[in-house]
Amino acid sequence: MIRINDIHKSYFINGKRTRVLKGITTHIKRGEKVVVIGPSGSGKSTFLRCLNLLEPPTSGQILFEGEDITSNKCDINKTRRKIGMVFQKFNLFPHLTVKQNIMLAPVHLKLKSPAEAEIEAVDLLKKVGLEKKINNYPNQLSGGQQQRIAIIRALAVHPEVMLFDEPTSALDPEMVGEVLNVMRELASTGMTMFVVTHEMNFAKEIATRILFINEGSIIEDKPPMEFFTQPTHCRVKEFLSKVWLSSR
Amino acid sequence: MKIFCKTVVTFFAVFTFSVFCTVYTFADAQSSIAKIKSDGFITMSTSAPFEPFEYLENNVLKGVDIDIAQKVADKLSVKLKVNNVSIDSLTFELKNSFCDFVCAGLSETPERAKNLDFSEPYFETSQAIVIAKDSAIKNSKDLEGKVVGVQIGTTADIYCSEDKNILKVVRFDKHVDAVQDLMAGQIDAVIVDDFAADKLVNLNKDKIHKLDEELTSESYSIAVKKGNHELLSIINDVIKEIKENGELDKIISKHYSINHSTSDKFVEYSGYIAEGLKNTLLMSLCAAIIGIILGIIIASIKVFSKGNKKLKIFSFLADTYITIIRGTPALIQLFIMYYGILGSFKVSNIVAAILAFGINSGAYVAEHVRAGIQSVDYGQMEAGRSLGLSQNTTLIKIILPQALKNILPSLAGEAITLLKETSVAGFIGIVDLSRAGDIIKSMSYEALRPLSIVAGIYLILVVGLTSLLKKFEKRLNK
Fold it and tell me: Do the chains contact at B393 and A93, CB–CB below 8 Å?
């Protein structure tokens, strides 16, 4: 579904080049749930943001269903409709109600009439148990509620793949569960998912494959059982031992 | 290098623009009697108030000059159109064919004769010296070493400027202002047209008086564009005719004898205020709309062309626009718009003012909006784009509504500035609120009361606008 061929990403800060991604190649198949793990600053988020070109890679190719989305010929706005994204900080539109947040893109992109979009918005809200908040503004909701709405806002344009950029990192611990539940349910529908997270148990539970990124390269690419029980790379072993310690 | 590029581009812009204007001026040079007849009207420019030659009565221009101009129009069997402009714009109006002739109590001077052709005189007058009751000045010789006030651009101004014995000439916009200063002891004498002198003395009998000496004798003529002999000879015929059949004397004595102080001043003055208020509000409102639209566009260009090489030229243009507009006075921009850019198109002065103020305001709004856009979290843009919305859609639907809410207080400040800025519109002959106060000042020979009333109205408008915007802001914050 998404083929990533040797992508590199560099930033220039005060004329000094920082290499964030140093040649990443992988293939995300339809229906897969890929979880990306790695220390902070390793380039996980940058990698995820390259997939819908919020960060255009410095070099390399990204093929979505065979089409090179990094080329100028590609209409990135059309491709982005097929790639939903959930942010660490929710990024709901504060000046719009929950309903308007969900309906904005489908109505504006003429995927649905306002009436149809509203029916679907109510449906989606019911699925995440927030139908009572339909006319509230984002700042009247808790973080967990906001993130659930951010997820269904992305789903309202019917994407084929969903990207999650540390979706629970900005939440109070007691709200993490409700967001993960929504993601679990989404996984069970067969959605292709690409998740950057620090929730090891969740990764273990839903992932079909785990990528470990360190200093801009994938150093481990294994199914979860194997990844957690027999990691090959010493950096991964070190990371896992620290993470498990802290979570016990 | 960057500054060099800017200079070159600005130079070319100005150059192209001047060529453009010149071409238009030449294209216009064919105006003649035939043109006037085919248009069905003839245009005369004057500068009111200058009693009894031109003055406003119940918002209608009347006076000796208006009646003579009507005779000229009658002679050609066309209608008469009258432009009322400031006295220093009269030559410009003729040179650029804004009007066919000027009838404004003008005397022929060598300076004016360079650009204009003058008719036979239709009126003989003199300049008088007005002094304070207790002054030691007895005749024009006593003016030596004294400070003298005149109205700018008048023959009194020219006379005094040439008289080397006078210590200092103070030039006032209106002769009423000169008399105010005379009574306050700021200046020693005022030289003013004889008729105005009588009027001014009559109103302040206890403080000032007029000397009997006639300082200069001068005559008033009608002016046409240099070389327009065809029209000039017709005008000369008319003057000769009305002189001979006695009509001219009738016209003059009719206007001399009218005592305006007996007419209903209050109704007349409030008519000016109403007219001024209407124009001020109209200009402010339209200019504000243009300013906001322009400001948003310019700010968007500035924010989104950053780091994009293809859009560099737009960003450069936006920067140049903001630099030029914020770096020059609004009054000069207004003049350039009316006399320069739109000068050849015969656009009405109110349209020119709306455009000038709108473009002026746009530069300030742009800087506010830019700050507003930058105050919105970048994640909002990313969220919009990740849903497949285009950059423009995201900007309009998501970023701008939040940005505008953040900058509403500074936009309110800009609206207030704009409202007050329109007070310079009087310089291109628009009767706005300030100009209305100015006209009433000239007509009533009194300064404090009309100006305080005008100031009061501005204050009410600003306070009203502020509270309106506060309410709006509260509603947005709900």
Answer: no
